[in-house]
Design goal:
With about 425 residues, this protein is α/β, with parallel strands linked by helices. The protein is about 45% helix and about 15% strand. The chain has helices at about 25-40, 45-55, 65-70, 75-95, 135-145, 165-175, 185-195, 210-220, 245-255, 270-285, 290-300, 310-320, 355-360, 395-410, 415-430, and strands at about 1-5, 100-105, 110-120, 120-125, 150-155, 180, 205, 225, 235-240, 265-270, 300-305, 325-330, 345, 385-390. α3 crosses α6. The termini are far apart.
Length: about 425
């Protein structure tokens, strides 16, 4: 891991992070070509890209009820129980987020408010590749289900034999997914955005993916809603001298094992403590089943920032704006007010980031790459839309009419002004 020593008065700069963006120019070019092919050739293009990138020949992308039943039968009872338990807590959390329609009537009778309703269809992307993620199904499908979305579509890359992971299928059913398709990559994003012969288009696309998926989501954004452009996953751990180096080490490794590009930041207060963490990583690594990926991430993207005091440490955290922030310190709640930017905050040594990934309830689809400066975790809001509602009475129009006419006149919009004036004239005439 790379080390940076902060001295009193030093200002940490984002350029020191050596961050990798969500996608590169090559991914953007490739995604552009794939999207155009799917838009123009539909299922034919989907089949070509699935054979090329996944090595699977698929004729019917939709997973049949028979295949769903067969897959679910293979799920171990203890895993099903764990997924159901996680789903219950995720659902409870997101139900508490739900925004409701509201209306307010002024004393003069004017009514203003907001009508909140779900989108008609949502598409959730569940990545394949280095790992299988039934947890991502739950984290994307359940907020859509809680929001009341009637059509929830899951797309995910097929395995080499053309099937899907049984746990992913099980999570789809638990989470409220209504359609499942065996297709991944930028081509799946194109299908969700524009539709093909077998996949009807949706209104909102959510879920993480590789650089090509991220590029495709950016390209279709505007024609369809998206949640965010997700880059490599990341964790920042703030640890004082009382924190157990073994806990800090394994939590860094838990993020690093996702991807060689995953970024792991340790913010601490002495080089000696950081070295103790590295020694603990070496011990844990002996038992890791994903040692190669984990080592690559920590070597290439691992960073230790040694700070002289806690205010400096928090200033570093706010520059990083991490996806996941763990606080292995005394009284972590006392730091909440100073933390400006973080996707999810895990407080105390008994709160590993893994509980947030799976069961705690808050969503694990989080802003990456510093975008926590302006973005929030996936929520029910992502699947809702709002319509403003306005109703005036003659009396309320008389109250506000002069203001409208003055502003409209200043902007040179004659009909705007006259549309109010004519009604006010009619009202006054009726009162005579």
């Amino acid at each position: 891991m790379r080390y940076i020593q902060m001295n009193p008065g030093d200002v940490f700069q984002e350029e020191q992070l050596n961050r990798t963006g969500a996608f590169n120019a090559a991914a953007l070019t490739a995604a552009t070509d794939i999207i155009e092919a799917v838009r123009t050739r539909g299922d034919e293009a989907l089949r070509e890209y699935t054979a090329k990138f996944d090595g699977v020949e698929i004729q019917d992308f939709r997973v049949s009820q028979e295949a769903i039943d067969a897959a679910r039968a293979k799920v171990a009872p203890e895993l099903r129980e764990a997924l159901q338990g996680a789903a219950a807590q995720i659902r409870d959390f997101h139900q508490r987020q739900m925004e409701k329609s509201w209306f307010n009537v002024r004393e003069d009778g004017a009514l203003v408010g907001a009508k909140v309703q779900p989108v008609d269809a949502a598409g959730i992307y569940v990545p394949g590749g280095r790992a299988l993620y039934p947890s991502s199904v739950l984290m994307n499908a359940i907020p859509a289900s809680v929001a009341g979305v009637p059509r929830i579509v899951c797309v995910t890359p097929p395995t080499k034999d053309g099937s899907l992971d049984p746990a992913i299928v099980e999570a789809c059913i638990i989470g409220g997914v209504t359609e499942i398709y065996s297709v991944g990559g930028a081509q799946a994003i194109a299908a969700l955005a524009y539709g093909t012969e077998s996949i009807k288009k949706v209104d909102k696309i959510t879920g993480p993916g590789n650089a090509f998926v991220a590029a495709a989501k950016r390209l279709v954004s505007g024609d369809v809603g998206i949640d965010m452009i997700a880059g490599p996953s990341e964790v920042c751990v703030v640890a004082d001298e009382k924190a157990d180096p073994r806990h800090v080490a394994i939590d860094l490794m838990a993020q690093a094992e996702h991807d060689p590009l995953a970024a792991c930041y340790l913010v601490t207060f002495s080089t000696e403590y950081a070295q103790a963490v590295e020694a603990a990583i070496a011990e844990h690594m002996k038992d890791s089943t994903r040692a190669e990926i984990t080592t690559a991430s920590l070597n290439d993207k691992g960073l230790v920032v040694v700070c002289p005091d806690m205010p400096t440490a928090i200033s570093v955290v706010n520059v990083i704006a991490p996806e996941h922030l763990e606080l292995h310190v005394d009284n972590p709640a006392s730091l909440l007010g100073a933390i400006r930017h973080a996707g999810a905050i895990f407080m105390g040594e008994w709160t590993p980031e893994a509980v947030g990934d799976y069961v705690a309830g808050p969503n694990h689809t989080l802003p990456t790459g510093g975008t926590a400066r302006f973005s929030s975790p996936l929520s029910t809001d992502m699947f809702l839309k709002r319509s403003s509602v306005i109703q005036y009475t003659p009396e309320s129009l008389m109250t506000d009419g002069d203001m409208v006419m003055k502003i409209a006149a200043h902007e040179g919009l004659w009909a705007h002004r006259r549309s109010v004036e004519i009604r006010m004239e009619d009202y006054r005439a009726a009162q005579q």
